[in-house]
């Protein structure tokens, strides 16, 4: 049956902005024009009154950690209330497939959460699990760190020829099963042990598939030049197109780096979120990678003894003194790390406080802790499951952040993590903030540019089929926006408050959000690449 959206202002990133009805049938837009609603009503169709709202293509979160949590209704609600209809998972080189998901659950559980159903079967099986189980579309990247762990374990050894060939075959299999590309996380174990030659080899099948190499690179902020240089090296070796995850640095530094990459002909895009603060595993930020590679059980045993903590403190001091090796351990680091999830009931009282604030407050277990000792005790108690919100070394204004999204290579990614007692607000507010601030005080052309930035660009870059447009033949992932009510309300103090201004959302032509509440329709689908350069919608 035809569903028609009546009286909205259509926002298309190519055709611009105009008032029209939008007719939908079979999950696709079949017509955009005047008088369609009355015709549909006469034929017994359903009419959705847009009430003067904007009709945008569904937004794409180009960097999401909703891999497991997207199956939860509270996460779906948080996404849809921001207009996000598709998320791209498998980020930072660590996720559930290939393999049985145990490594990802153990190491990245505080980021992605435990998967409720996946226990093996590879990328194809993981993607199958998103069909008919969620209201949001899910694409997936083959995670290079997971591939390395499956073949070589967590150690730092370089792969021999047989191991490298096995890793390449795993990437090929994931792409054949529908993955959109390959991701790496070069701050995380074991991805941090891979060099450019290894990563270029893994990118060879990605290049052949016309897919994308997506990287949490080895260096951000003042180390961004070093990180981007390695990305360029990998691209030159393999011929792959690259995408940098959550790119953040000083605005003037970032401008120069991107201009240089453009001048050298590098095929590069990136995503970013509109916040200065970051988020990570405390273990990644403060523990030596070689120690983490020994596994949570070994590290936990060491951190639960005074002698073990003293040994680790000495390692941290050496790491912090090594140029470029301990960027997160710059002077005053405990005051820049606010606990998002303590990972254990014993230290739940620290959530929402910086490590410095927590150490200075009264701890029933030990009142004489310094911040470093507190951090190590928390990691030991939680089996390394502590997460923190990070203040950048150099604070940035909203105006500086806005410059990031003016680059033609930019798109939106929340880096959203839906776990912990005091998470980062970006998971609940990033896209609402981008829409609201991007349109504020600007001319009408701002809305088509936002639809391009947050929908069409990632659709085209990642190969997500006939999405990202409000035009005949497009998949009807559509969002109705009330500009007057549009706002993000998630704050550092109240990070899980829902956005406002988006109350109606369609996925494949099916209403999944109506009046600001979820419907019963689980219309989300896995977003697969079926053959080189020709992704299926």
Low-confidence stretches: 531-537
Quaternary organization: single chain
First and last CA, distance: 21 Å
In CATH, what is the homologous superfamily of the largest domain? Answer: Metal-dependent hydrolases
- CA radius of gyration is 23 Å
Major sheet details: 9 strands, mixed
Q: What percentage of residues falls in helices of 4 or more residues?
A: 25-40%
CATH class of the largest domain: Alpha Beta
Instruction: Work out the helix count.
Output: 18
Q: Looking at the structure, what is the overall shape?
A: globular
CATH topology of the largest domain: TIM Barrel
Number of strands: 24
In short:
This protein is an alpha/beta fold and 537 residues long.
Task: Characterise the protein shown here.
The chain has 18 helices and 24 strands. Helix 7 (196-208) packs across helix 8 (224-238) and helix 12 (296-303) packs across helix 15. The protein has 537 residues and is an alpha/beta fold. 54% of the residues are buried.
Keywords:
537 residues; alpha/beta; TIM Barrel; 2 domains; 9-stranded mixed sheet; 24 strands; disordered C terminus
Helix and strand topology:
Blueprint (H helix, E strand, L loop, with lengths): L2 E10 L3 E10 L2 E6 L2 H7 L3 E4 L4 E4 L1 E3 L11 H8 L3 E6 L12 H11 L9 H7 L8 E4 L1 E2 H9 L8 H16 L4 E5 L10 H13 L3 E5 L7 H15 L2 E4 L6 H13 L4 E5 L5 E4 H5 L2 H4 L3 H8 L2 H15 L16 E5 L13 H6 L10 H12 L4 E4 L7 H7 L5 E3 L13 H14 L6 H17 L15 E4 L20 E6 L2 E5 L2 E2 L7 E2 L1 E3 L2 E2 L2
Parallel strand pairs: 1-4, 1-5, 6-7, 7-8, 8-22, 9-10, 10-11, 11-12, 12-13, 13-17
Antiparallel strand pairs: 1-2, 2-3, 5-18, 14-16, 15-16, 18-19, 19-20, 20-21, 23-24
Helix pairs in contact: 5-6, 6-7, 7-8, 8-9, 12-15, 17-18
């Amino acid at each position: 049956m035809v569903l028609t959206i009546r009286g909205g202002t259509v926002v298309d990133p190519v055709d611009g902005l105009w008032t029209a009805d939008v007719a939908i049938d079979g999950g696709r837009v079949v017509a955009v024009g005047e008088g369609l609603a009355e015709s549909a009503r006469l034929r017994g169709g359903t009419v959705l009154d847009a009430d003067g709202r904007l009709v945008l293509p569904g937004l794409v979160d180009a960097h999401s950690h909703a891999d497991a949590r997207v199956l939860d209704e509270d996460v779906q609600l948080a996404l849809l209330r921001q207009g996000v209809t598709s998320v791209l998972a498998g980020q930072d080189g660590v996720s559930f497939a290939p393999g049985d998901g145990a490594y990802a659950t153990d190491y990245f559980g505080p980021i992605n959460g435990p998967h409720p159903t996946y226990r093996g079967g590879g990328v194809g099986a993981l993607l199958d699990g998103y069909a008919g189980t969620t209201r949001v579309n899910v694409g997936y990247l083959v995670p290079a760190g997971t591939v390395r762990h499956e073949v070589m374990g967590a150690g730092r050894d370089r792969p021999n020829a047989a191991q490298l060939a096995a890793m390449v075959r795993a990437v090929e299999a994931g792409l054949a099963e529908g993955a959109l590309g390959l991701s790496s996380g070069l701050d995380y174990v074991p991805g941090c042990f891979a060099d450019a030659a290894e990563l270029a080899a893994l990118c060879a099948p990605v290049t052949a598939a016309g897919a994308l190499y997506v990287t949490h690179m080895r260096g951000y902020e003042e180390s961004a030049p070093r990180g981007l240089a390695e990305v360029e090296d990998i691209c030159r070796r393999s011929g792959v197109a690259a995408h940098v995850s959550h790119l953040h640095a000083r605005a003037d530094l970032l401008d120069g780096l991107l201009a240089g990459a453009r001048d050298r002909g590098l095929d590069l895009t990136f995503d970013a979120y509109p916040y200065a603060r970051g988020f990570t595993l405390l273990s990644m930020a403060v523990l030596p990678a070689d120690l983490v590679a020994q596994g949570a059980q070994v590290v936990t045993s060491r951190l639960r003894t005074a002698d073990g903590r003293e040994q680790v403190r000495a390692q941290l001091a050496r790491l912090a003194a090594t140029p470029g090796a301990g960027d997160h351990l710059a002077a005053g680091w405990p005051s820049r790390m606010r606990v998002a999830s303590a990972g254990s009931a014993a230290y739940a009282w620290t959530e929402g406080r910086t490590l410095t604030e927590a150490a200075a407050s009264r701890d029933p277990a030990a009142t004489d802790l310094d911040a470093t000792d507190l951090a190590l005790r928390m990691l030991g108690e939680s089996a390394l499951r502590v997460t923190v919100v990070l203040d950048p070394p150099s604070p940035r204004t909203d105006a500086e952040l806005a410059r990031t999204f003016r680059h033609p290579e930019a798109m939106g990614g929340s880096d959203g993590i839906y776990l912990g007692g005091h998470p980062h607000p970006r998971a609940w507010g990033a896209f609402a903030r981008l829409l609201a601030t991007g349109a504020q005080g600007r001319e009408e052309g701002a809305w088509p540019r936002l639809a391009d930035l947050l929908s069409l660009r990632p659709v085209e870059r990642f190969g997500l089929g006939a999405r990202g447009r409000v035009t005949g033949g497009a998949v009807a992932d559509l969002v109705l926006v009330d500009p007057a009510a549009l706002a993000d309300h998630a704050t550092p103090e109240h990070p899980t408050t829902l956005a406002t201004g988006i109350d109606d959302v369609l996925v494949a032509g099916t209403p999944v959000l109506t009046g600001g509440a979820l419907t019963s329709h689980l219309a989300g689908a896995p977003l697969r690449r079926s053959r080189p350069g020709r992704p299926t919608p």
